[in-house]
Every structure is written in C-alpha cells, then in structure tokens.
Amino acid sequence: MKIFFAVPCGDFYSLQNEIIDKICKTHSIDKVIIEEISRTNYLWKDIIDEIDTADLFVSDISSRSPNIVIELGYAIKAKPIDNIGIFVSKNIQPFSDIDGFKRQEYRSYSEFLELLEKWINERLYSNPSSYKQTSLSFPKFHEEFLDLNKFIRLWDTPPGCQYNLEFDGLHFTSSHMPIISNHLALLENYSDLPPFPRTPS
Questions:
Q1: pLDDT of residue 101
Q2: What's the chain's Rg over C-alpha atoms?
Q3: Is residue 59 part of a domain?
C-alpha cells in the first residue's frame, strides 16, 4: 500500500510529519512526501507519476501551499474521490473551489492523528475489528515569546502578518489568530497553559 502525502514540510510541521510517519509504520504503508526530497531532483512528470501509482492520496491544505494545491488538483482529476483525503485546520477558511468535497477538519495535533488514522483504517480494512491504532503522546509546550530575536529564529508567521514586541510578549496584527493555528490548529492541545506574564521583562 502506497500513499502520496501532499503536506507541508520543515521544522514548523515536524510534529505533523512525525504523526504521518508513526501511522504509516503502524499500517505498513509506503509513504511518499515529495517535499522531503529536494525539488531539484523532481520534475512535474515525476510528481504525477508518484500520484498515479499511489493507492491513496492525502493532502493538508492548511498552509495554503501552491505546490500542495496543484498536487491536490491533479489527484482529483486522476483518482477516485474516495481515495483522496483532504485535511484542513478549522482555523482557516478553505478554498471555495473545494466546497463540494468532503474535508477532514481538525483543531489539534491529536485530532489530526485521530482523523487521519480513521480515514486510513476505513480504506485499508473491510472489517472494523481489523482497525489499528497508533499511540503517540503530545508534549505540552508553551513559548512566552518575550525575546523577539528568539521568535524570529524559531518560528514562522503567515504572509502579511505583523508583530511587535511589547512588555507582555509579542502582539500580532493582520493575521488569523492565534498565529500558530493559522497553519496548524495546535492550541487545543495546550489550552490548559497559563497566559503570558503581565510584568515587564
């Protein structure tokens, strides 16, 4: 079984890619993620060949990456719609052109894992008793962002986003809020964390 994953890569998305890796190992799936390989080694023909030969196609359009959207568009033309999984964060507005397609909408990493594995189980196994479950713990995380240079080194913001360092942390404008969830809906996992400190740094 081979699945083509059209998903964003890079440090910001490392946990999402770890989820995909773990699920693929659980189900003995051969995964293909083009973004993991330098695009200088791939031409469009190689990409569509990988999509054509994959049994299933999964995309996450939350990052609004043009490459992912193009790959999804080709897959919709080339493969049965039941073999295409479209995932998106609930914190962004999906493209209107896919309004007629079923989407898997998630709020957190744990929900992304649950929805992706459910979608894969339903396509791999005819009997629910054969369904498999991937175990993965999600560490609690909190970054106060009181250091602007540290923020710039470690994090990415959506295009057009503006931010200013204030005494109580970074303030954001011109973007969907919260910032991290514009790309991936993360904050439900961290909802029990304390707010930013209110004392000058």
A1: 85
A2: 18
A3: yes
